[in-house]
Amino acid sequence: MSITKGEELRFLGHLDYLRTLERAVLRAGIPVAFSEGFNPHMKLFLDSALGVGVTADPLYLAMGLEGDMAVEKVKKNLSLQLPKGIQIHSIVEAQDNWPKFVAVFNEDAYEMEGPVCEGFDEQVAEKALKSLELFNNLPSFLYKRVTPKKIREMDVKPMILEPMKCSFHNRRAHLTFSLVRSMTGTVQPKDIWKMLAESFDMPWIPGEFICSRTGTYRRVRGKRLTLEDPGVFDGLLKGK
């Protein structure tokens, strides 16, 4: 399924969002499958865990069924039970040899925005755009992510797939960029926002922003493919 986590649910955590989906599935009368063992759980799998405060459109969901139900009926029944903020764009019937999401998607596109600092004017905006251009042209940049448990130094440039873009409207800054998705970890959007403020004098406060994931893709030779695009599973199908 291609679904959304909209503005109404921005501050709902990952587990609460998943529980909301589970309850809607039960109310919709969908013959969902459960795992085996002492603690069976519903076979619902999101393509990734979104951070609190992050919206997504689309967000991909896999659901296993233990009985037949037409795709059109699944969409109709489930749509009636979903709260505001979750919308179903499309549903496709998966094949047995399809790979898991973790093997498919390798790029996430984001939009971030936040208020500009005091004293912002046209000169500050012009300086900020030149500073961002400087960052975009760097071959590498080491960023230290500080957490309560450890300090991790990483080169963020290989994790950013395209030059970042910034604009200013109504005293708010708008930043767009695209990040590599990797099982070994990648830089987070909040790190990008903080890094640009602290190291490149971008005129915003490091902790004040909202973030939206605007796309999730499989990037192949520079081309973006979505779950609905032909060829998205090329080279990934099981048994091939």
What does this structure look like?
The protein is of the alpha+beta class and 240 residues long. The protein has 2 domains: 2-94, 2-Layer Sandwich (Alpha-Beta Plaits), CATH 3.30.70; 107-224, Alpha-Beta Plaits, CATH 3.30.70. The protein is 22% helix and 28% strand. The chain contains 5 helices and 11 strands, in the order E-H-E-E-H-E-H-E-H-E-E-E-E-H-E-E. It has helices at residues 14-27, 71-79, 101-104, 122-137, 189-199, and strands at 2-5, 44-46, 54-63, 88-90, 107-115, 142-146, 151-155, 165-169, 172-180, 210-220, 223-225. The strands form 2 sheets. Strands 1, 2, 3, 4, 5, 8, 9, 10 and 11 form a 9-stranded mixed beta sheet that branches. A two-stranded antiparallel sheet has the order 6-7. The mean pLDDT is 93.
Q: What multimeric state do the chains show?
A: single chain
Number of domains: 2
Per DSSP E runs of 2 or more residues, the count of β-strands stands at 11
Order of helices and strands: EHEEHEHEHEEEEHEE
Overall pLDDT score: 93
Describe the main β-sheet briefly.
9 strands, mixed
CATH-assigned fold name of the largest domain: Alpha-Beta Plaits
CATH architecture of the largest domain: 2-Layer Sandwich
> Separation of termini?
24 Å
Fraction of residues in helix: 10-25%
Q: Please give the count of helices.
A: 5
Structural class: alpha+beta
Point out poorly predicted stretches: none
Strand content: 25-35%
Global outline: globular
Radius of gyration, in Å, reads 20 Å
CATH first level of the largest domain: Alpha Beta
Quickly list its features.
5 helices, 2 domains, 28% strand, two-stranded antiparallel ribbon, single chain, nine-stranded mixed beta sheet, Alpha-Beta Plaits, 240 residues
